[in-house]
Amino acid sequence: MKIITKISESREEINIFRCVGKRIGFVPTMGYLHEGHLSLVKKCREENDIVVVSIFVNPTQFGAGEDFERYPKDMKNDTDMLQKAGVDFLFAPSAEEMYPTGSSTTISVSGVSDGLCGSSRPGHFDGVALVVTKLLNIIMPNKAYFGMKDYQQLQVIKRFVTDLNMNTKIIGMPIVREADGLAMSSRNVYLNSEERKSALCLSRSFALVHEAIEGGETEVSEVKHIVESFIKDHPHTRIDYAQFVDPETLKPVKDLSRDFLLALAVYVGKTRLIDNNLFKVM
Amino acid sequence: MKIITKISESREEINIFRCVGKRIGFVPTMGYLHEGHLSLVKKCREENDIVVVSIFVNPTQFGAGEDFERYPKDMKNDTDMLQKAGVDFLFAPSAEEMYPTGSSTTISVSGVSDGLCGSSRPGHFDGVALVVTKLLNIIMPNKAYFGMKDYQQLQVIKRFVTDLNMNTKIIGMPIVREADGLAMSSRNVYLNSEERKSALCLSRSFALVHEAIEGGETEVSEVKHIVESFIKDHPHTRIDYAQFVDPETLKPVKDLSRDFLLALAVYVGKTRLIDNNLFKVM
């Protein structure tokens, strides 16, 4: 695995393979890798000739007061994991390399970026759109892989990649969970042992929704009440949102008679966790 | 010259040449071509192996009440001109091909897009940024060529191409003028014979500025007054703006002791004309 920190070098190295017809696969990450990331890398390895992973904690997608400064890092462990996973290139640029003069350019996506994390984290998806556009333009992959834990992010990325005619296929991969159901996240490291227990309320609430649906319940307000009460019963939790939305538009659904996504953002202690589940309704 | 109307076909055709190392040059236009466009095509022909020209009257860069509906068209003549100029591919997509579902994505450039046409035509540069990004992502040229008559547009494009790490070099080419000095523009066809005479006030005002500067004048307000009075003395004219700006930032300059750009937008009858001149001060 070759580690590259410069944009120009990245272009040169990868171009060699592109121009002999090799398929380039790309997994953008913020590092502090876990099994969720590795599932993307594995899929990328299967589907492409050359696998590029980036590690870049992107300042423009963090808001004031968020955890940019303390976002966890372990470059040594990340490098080992990626090496073992058969990655060809690790692109790990500095913030100066990515934003030498900041950015005068903003990319905004309307519709799917409204609501949910778009409301809770103003400017977050603009920051994501900017850095993903930059990375896709630098790596120019045939396919890029993103986890579905960040479901809204995935929809935003698919939207602007289509709108801007970017020549990359965006692949969403299923959420990877710990044995007890907690969605894997680099931010799980922030949780103390009590919080770690409470954090199970997100994934466990999905079972309650299944039960309610199977019991014939179609009222959003009823099921929402069940979920919110369940989460609130767990110590140290504070609900940011618990929304039942259309899986395509991410607009709130009126009832639960068709497919819907339950999207959750819950503070557990000071840590903001997200999770979601797609419910297929007969 | 091959005429292509579909994005997928354009990708396929051009990819063949890209992947054998051919240099791809691109000239995006809105058609109704004149010698200004041809100067771009000529330079593009000189500097590249494959020359792609697009003709697309982009709806998203026109404001309400502007001339989108009546923008002049002459596909037959355009095609003949491009054929003679040695163009390899003419990309002429429909609006449906370019915007099958509209666009949820907006690209905005702060700084250089403020003021001048950015003030007079709200949303114009967002529309330009969107369509140029789409076209560059479709054609993926090594170099793309733009005229300096649209000086602010050129600065906006250079800015977002840099910010987004797009892999295309943006080349600005000098304004091409009629024998009497009028800057070539597809919109000149709107002018009746009286307006055509009045339209000379734009380019002729540059000589007055030269005179004033050589006479030692450095006060913006003085020279601006000379220019505005001169333009107003011509029948059917209405000044949109006459601004003395920094050639890089496009912010108004405080005095005329350093290099500056005089940027003009003047209605002649109902036709809005723009022109500009870079003044190099010793």
TrEMBL record, chains A, B:
Entry annotated with the keyword Disulfide bond: no
Pathway(s) of this molecule: Cofactor biosynthesis; (R)-pantothenate biosynthesis; (R)-pantothenate from (R)-pantoate and beta-alanine: step 1/1
Active-site residues from the entry: 37
Swiss-Prot/TrEMBL catalytic activity: (R)-pantoate + beta-alanine + ATP = (R)-pantothenate + AMP + diphosphate + H(+)
UniProt cross-references to Pfam families, sorted A to Z: Pantoate_ligase (PF02569)
A GO CC term assigned to this protein in UniProt: cytosol
Residues binding (R)-pantoate, per UniProt: 61, 153
Positions that bind beta-alanine: 61
EC number: 6.3.2.1
Residues where ATP binds: 30-37, 147-150, 176, 184-187
GO BP annotations listed: pantothenate biosynthetic process
Single GO term (MF): ATP binding
Subcellular location: Cytoplasm
Record keywords: ATP-binding, Cytoplasm, Ligase, Nucleotide-binding, Pantothenate biosynthesis
Keyword hit for Ligase: yes
Chief location category: cytoplasm
Other notes: The reaction proceeds by a bi uni uni bi ping pong mechanism.
Function of the molecule: Catalyzes the condensation of pantoate with beta-alanine in an ATP-dependent reaction via a pantoyl-adenylate intermediate.
Record-stated family: Belongs to the pantothenate synthetase family.
Known partners and oligomeric status: Homodimer.
Name this polypeptide is given: Pantothenate synthetase
Source organism (scientific name): Geovibrio thiophilus
